[in-house]
Amino acid sequence: MTKTKWAIDTAHSSVDFSIRHMMIANVKGSFHEFSSTVEADVTDLTTATIDFTVQLSSIDTRNKDRDGHLLSADFFDVEKFPTLNFRSTEITKVDEGEYNVTGELSLHGFSKSETFTVTFEGQGKDPWGNEKVGFSAQGTLNRADYGLTWNSALETGGVLVGDKVKVNLQIEASKAE
Question: What architecture (CATH level 2) is domain 4-175?
Fold first, then answer.
């Protein structure tokens, strides 16, 4: 099969994350503005090209004060670094419908190779005859690798914010015109 261009359906997709808070709980959040350019044969992603961009100003942790702090120079510094970008460099098949997608992730002025586990969730037509595909992706980033090192020591030991950020994407895409 040949490669097809796919357009992300942001109304049916999500970019979510979680991070440890006070070493006892997880705080979850989402980014609401993101875009992607994907060219792929969905039956074999090993030849796909994926470019993914997240607008960091669209962060939502369900707390305006925390979101404001995350947008500040202490963390993302969105005035200087408004986006997170990912571009695939290698895709390997792990199992039927499961892949390791490695690429260059750029955030906060730093770039690093990261690998995400991507699962092909299925393909079908919506009620209007549009071809759709679904994918899920998971990975873990170390925020310190991207210069995001702000923290605060706790009186009881440990730190306020963990280093590992768990990322979870649910993606639905339509065949691009």
Answer: Beta Barrel (2.40)
Percent of the chain with pLDDT over 70: 87
- Residues 162, 73, 68, 13, CA torsion sign: negative
Query: Residue 161's pLDDT is what?
Result: 52
Per-residue pLDDT of 75-89, as tens digits, reads: 788 999 999 999 999
Short-list 15, 9, 2, CA closest to 168: 15
Q: Which two tokens mark 105? A: 């992730």
What pTM, to 2 d.p., does this model score?
Answer: 0.86
